[in-house]
Amino acid sequence: FIAGDGTNDVVRDEVRRTAQIQTSDLGPDTVAQQEKLSAIVRTDAEQGIVEVLPVSGPFDRTAPLHLTLAHPTRSEADLSLVLEPDELGWRTQAKIDASHDWKVELGPQDGRWRLRGRLPKQQQATHLRPSVQAP
């Protein structure tokens, strides 16, 4: 019998295995940390929108952003959205299922940097940060 706490999330990163060690590319996370990037992702079920609001760092406010909402256990339910710049940040039309948590990943189309977070079920916003922290 094996017990768990229900947090067996699927790993979306490309992982390489060397001997018994698994590694993944943290380059985009490091760039986001060095540039001190952070943002808020907000959903609005009534209006059917998802928007990203910059919090800190030098975002390119003229370029679209790529947002991935990953289901914690079922990859076929994952959503991939392109958000276009608007007056406050970036926005797109989309309805998000709030009945479960989402793993959230945000970055530019070229993948140069990456922010991550978790949108808990029934919550309408979350703060995205780099996965790596300053030493």
Topology:
Elements lengths: L14 E4 L2 E4 L2 H8 L3 E7 L4 E8 L8 E6 L8 E7 L4 E4 L8 E7 L6 E5 L5 E4 L7
Antiparallel strand pairs: 1-2, 3-4, 3-10, 4-7, 5-6, 5-8, 6-7, 8-9
Keywords summarizing the entry:
10 strands; disordered N terminus; 1 helix; 135 residues; globular
Can you give a write-up of this model?
There is one protein chain. A hairpin with a 4-residue loop joins strand 6 (79-85) and strand 7. 6% of the residues lie in helices and 41% in strands. The strands form two sheets. An eight-stranded antiparallel beta sheet has the order 9-8-5-6-7-4-3-10. A two-stranded antiparallel sheet has the order 1-2. The chain has one helix at residues 27-34, and strands at residues 15-18, 21-24, 38-44, 49-56, 65-70, 79-85, 90-93, 102-108, 115-119, 125-128. It is mainly beta and 135 residues long.
| Major sheet attributes | 8 strands, antiparallel
Supply Rg: 16 Å
Low-confidence region ranges: 1-5, 7-11
Strand content: 35-45%
Helix content: under 10%
Q: Taking all residues together, what is the mean pLDDT?
A: 85
Spatial arrangement of strands, main beta sheet: 9-8-5-6-7-4-3-10
* Overall outline: globular
Distance between the termini: 40 Å
What's the tally of helices? 1
Could you state the order of secondary-structure elements as H and E? Answer: EEHEEEEEEEE
Short description:
The protein is mostly beta strands and 135 residues long. It has one helix at residues 27-34; strands at 15-18, 21-24, 38-44, 49-56, 65-70, 79-85, 90-93, 102-108, 115-119, 125-128.
